[in-house]
Amino acid sequence: MSAITQTSILEGRSGTFARLSDFFWRNPKILLFLMLAPPLLWLGIIYLGSLFALLLQSFFSIDEFSGLINYEFTLDTYRQLLIPSNFDIILRTVVMAALVTLASAVIAFPIAYYAARYARGKWKALFYLGVMLPLWSSYLVKVYAWKLILAKEGIFTWFLAKLHLTWLLDAWLSLPVVGGNSLSISYTGTFIVFVYVWMPFMILPIQAALERVPGNLIEASADLGGNPAQTFRHVLFPLALPGIIAGSIFTFSLTLGDYIIPQIIGSSRLFIGQAVYAQQGTAGNIPLAAAFTVVPIVIMGFYLWMAKKQGAFDAL
Amino acid sequence: MTTAVLFDKVSRHFGSVRAVDSVDLAVVEGEFFAMLGPSGSGKTTCLRLMAGFEQPTGGHIEIFGETAEGVPPYRRNVNTVFQDYALFPHLSILENVAYGLMVKGVGKEERLKAAEDALAMVKLPGYGTRRPGQLSGGQRQRVALARALVNRPRVLLLDEPLGALDLKLREQMQEELKTLQKSLGITFVFVTHDQGEALSMADRVAVFNDGRIQQLGTPEEVYKRPQTRFVADFVGSSNVLSPAFVKSLGYPARYASLRPEALSLGGGTGDVTGERKRVTGTVVATSFLGAANRVTVEAGGGTRIAAMVPASEALPEQGSGVTLSFAAHDLHLMDEAA
């Protein structure tokens, strides 16, 4: 008992660290500054700085003959985006990204709903494992695996044959645009793989949003006479919308920028990511590559602005 | 007298837990019916069975003579005021109140007008443009009430609606609810764990414990003539006396309840013959309750008796011997066997 002193203010511990603790306790703002400075420097200089440098490049042009960059401000490079062959690339990518986002949302919602409302204990753990597991393996391996699955001699074709549904696949592949020689070299294949690869990024935000919807709001809607469809439309969907928007930002922007999936699985027509890759690499046209890069940024900005205007974030 | 809600041997079991166990009750049209009990007694599950959020595992439910089993909540002309109000956070107050009419397909102008009227009825006119998050608990409670009543339900279910309010507001809302119920003539079924609330508001009270109804009657019956030890104890903390002790006072050997306010200090006025009964013992505790003091007396054989003594009377010392007396007819013998 002798260790207990009668003083009410304890003696400060000695040493530099103890003095430092006291100092930070008295000046919490300095601590906050010290903690935030490194990440902000990283974000400000390395990340935003390089992004800015890239954007700057898009306002330069390339000399057709020498292949050298002409450091004079011009909108010529942007004008090049509008020529049919380039504009097709943009259109193709945006339509694909929109369809992938829509399909992901439709498939992800029931999964997320189950996880948020019904899964408990080990089923919830299983859900997280199931959603996250694909993210643990290499992206390239997954894409090549899909190439095998979707190939003409692949398991998917074999499976449909066993179900006597080969005619359905053939009918689909004979369609213009979405069809092709086999799924692995068609837009349909690209679409399937995009939806597969980005699915976790859609499920998790929706699940988080649904998790925050109190169950009694759904009961209240039913109590007031809303049938399940009305409850979905007027209560569940608006409250899950911030999550759906968050998920769609991932799926939409990731599809806009990806250059590996369409290269491995799909027709040989280019997507924005591939165009950027080709322009800055083999073609050496950095300004055009930069201009292509600006397109997804502008589209995403516009998308978020529209979403905000439609009140998508009101329930946040 | 039309029966609004009828329960015929209704059970709701969750695995081995018997949340509601063979309950019979009949709520009469136009009455204020309270379901009173501690948490986990099955009262809320009964309410949810009426609303349609739960389906019975046994028995039969009728709402105004029509079978209710298998009927989803959205096809019942019954509305609920939820415990934590369950207002839609993404809708304005007016849209919240108009929700029921909207899903029923009532035109926009008409339903917004009806919602305004309902808000005026609960004394929140002009609050329509706000969001639920901007209102206080009491105001949200009124919105929840308006949102249910705007649908003109045949039965209004209230799930501990005043539980989250402070005392002053609760008393005010009790009066308002009672007035509203009388003026609208809608059947109210009210769930509460507050016996004072149930006794002051209800026309009839069903006291629940362990998934069963212990007693069903008017507040006065339940208070004055409890049928079981549980009811005597839960409704107004009556003294529950053991059969042996009751016998020693000259009654049949049965459990009995004795209200603390029926007891007074001292031998009492008047003669001893039959009129008044006496108990002697030692004071073990006293507590100040404002208008009265509660004196707990150890009366031998482990029997403790609490008496309410008006604050004007002198308080006996702790440990001193006292005599308590009560009018013989105030002791209520219970049906429950010894």
Automatic annotation (TrEMBL), chain A:
ABC transmembrane type-1 domain sequence ranges: 90-304
Membrane-topology annotation of the record: Multi-pass membrane protein
Gene Ontology BP, a term: transmembrane transport
Keyword annotations: Cell membrane, Membrane, Transmembrane, Transmembrane helix, Transport
PROSITE patterns: ABC_TM1
One Pfam family hit: BPD_transp_1
Protein transport keyword on record: no
GO cellular component terms, semicolon-separated: plasma membrane
SUPFAM superfamilies on file: MetI-like (SSF161098)
InterPro entries recorded: MetI-like, MetI-like_sf
Family classification: Belongs to the binding-protein-dependent transport system permease family. CysTW subfamily.
Protein name: Putative spermidine/putrescine transport system permease protein
Source organism: Mycoplana azooxidifex
UniProtKB/TrEMBL annotation, chain B:
Listed name of the protein: Putative spermidine/putrescine transport system ATP-binding protein
Gene Ontology cellular-component terms listed: ATP-binding cassette (ABC) transporter complex
Keywords noted in UniProt: ATP-binding, Nucleotide-binding, Transport
Domain ABC transporter: 5-235
InterPro entries, A to Z: AAA+_ATPase, ABC_SmlMolc_Importer, ABC_transporter-like_ATP-bd, ABC_transporter-like_CS, Mo/tungstate-bd_C_term_dom, P-loop_NTPase, Transp-assoc_OB_typ2
Name of one Pfam family that matches: ABC_tran
Family assignment from sequence similarity: Belongs to the ABC transporter superfamily.
Keyword Transport part of the UniProt annotation: yes
GO molecular function, a single term: ATP hydrolysis activity
Keyword ATP-binding: yes
Organism of derivation: Mycoplana azooxidifex
Biological processes, Gene Ontology terms: putrescine transport
The organism's place on the tree of life at top rank: Bacteria
